[in-house]
Each structure stands twice: as C-alpha cells, then as structure tokens.
Design a protein that fits this description.
The chain has about 300 residues and is of the alpha/beta class. The protein is built from eight helices and eleven strands. The longest helix is centred in the N-terminal third of the chain and has 28 residues, at about 60-85.
Length: about 300
Amino acid sequence: MEQGQLRALRELGDRGSIAAVAAALHVTPSSVSQQISALQRQSPAPLTFKSGRRTALTDAGRALAAAAIDVEVALERAGQAVASFQGDLSGAVSVAAFHSAGLALFGPLIAATAGRDQPQVRLTDFDVAQEAFPSLTPDHDLVLAHRLVGSPPWPTSVRVEPLLFEPLDIAVRRDHPLAAQSSVEPADLRDAEWVAVHEGFPLEQAITVIAGIGGSEARIIHRINDFALAAAVISASGSVALMPRYTTDLRDHPELVLRPLSSPGLGRYIDCLARPETLERATVATVLSHIRAIATGLIHDRPAA
C-alpha cells in the first residue's frame, strides 16, 4: 500500500466525493479513482460502493481509512523529528474559528505570534452549524468549535483539545426589569421577545430548553448570528438574547448587561479540533499553546455576571 492510495481513501471518507478529493489534492478525479482502484486490488474486501452518483466507503473502507490516520501520524512524526531537532518554527498555521471565538481570540493570538521566533498564523472565520466543524479540519490546521452541553460528542476522526466551558447568560438593557435581578429564572422569560441565532445553530437549542423549563414556547422575533449586531437590536428593542459569557464583548454597548441563569450547567464547550497528524507539527503545537493561554485568560478577565 502506498501513502498516496491511503490518503485518497481517507480523503474520500472525509470529503464525500471523488471530485472533492481531487480538488483538495490538486489532481484530476481520474487520478483519485486510479489510486483507490490500486488500493482495492490489494484488499480482499470491497472498500467502496456506489451511493447514487457518489462513491462511498464500506465498513472495510472506513476501517482502512482510520488506519491511514496512524500512517499519516507516523510520517508527520518522522518529518518533525528533524524539524524539532533544529528548533524550526517557520511556516504558517491556519486557524479557523466561529465568529465570537474569533473576535475574542484572534487579536491576542496575532499579538502572541508577532515575534520572529513564532509561527505565522493565517486566520479564517466560519459561521457553520455544530456538526459541520469537523469537516473543516482537512483544510485548516486548527478549528475552534463550540458544542452545546448535552449534544453528541465530536467524531473520533478528529482530535479534540478542550479549551474552556462557557456559561450562557441573558443579555438585557439596564432598564429591563430582569437587569435588577441577580439571576434569571426560566419562568421570568415566559413573555420575553427573543433575539435568537439562525435555525440549526447550538444556541437556538438552548433557548428551546430554557423556554421548556419555564413552561412556555420561546417567542423568537429576530434571528441574528452576529452577537454585536444582536446587541444593537437588544439595545433598540428591549428584547432579550442568550449570549456566551466569556466571548461576548459588550464594551460598545454599556447600556446592556449580562445576567446568569439560575439553572447551572447551561453552556457550551469551546474545543480545538484538528487532524491527529497535524498536532505533531511543532508550529501547530506552539499556536495551540497560545490559544490555550488566551482562552484561560478570558475566564479571569470576564468573571460571572
């Protein structure tokens, strides 16, 4: 088995189509098909099958694709052995993040990697549903993702590096009756008009849970994914919104406050996702170390409301 054949099979499992694999590897679809066909000739069990117009992996194909990860890790370690010996931190590290994480972490990360002995970072923001974050790891070294408490864990195809647990608070105007309370009961929100995220995003599920505990159905008036824009709407309308405690920056809206929910445990996990072999690179490990430190600092800088 050749590395290129195993890589083609793994990429097919991650990307879902031969055309997508070809685009990612900068080769022709025919070349990808030939690599997989060559690998199939060495396997006694079928590795792929036709699913409509697409080529998908069988159980045996998925098992071999998973084994290919170990091959990539071993090769990456071999390459890093020389680089680590030389103390080489040159090269770029791509970091993708959802909007609020990018707002809170990207600035400090650029400052932390500004020295000549630091890797260069390339930053990208993505506004995707929770289940789409793992699919970003083939194209980005580190992916900052969020997952609501109680939701399914990340797939085993990615390495998960936990960063922090972020409680979710209620954002209101200072003149709102709830602003005078030290904490908010779900029943207090029974008649509230909500500014919610778009359907399919984690915080929408949390609003549904809160409304259910309070014995009502959430009255969602506005759907806005950007928290800065949501803050402007709350300021103008008197609506309420669910906002994360550490990555929300309300300095431009001093008329707003965050109030914690009385029910503990409602929040989201912020994790860093990556392909296992990617974390073997010294440059990536350095950038991840900076991200960890910045995330820890957020907890101390923005304590409970």
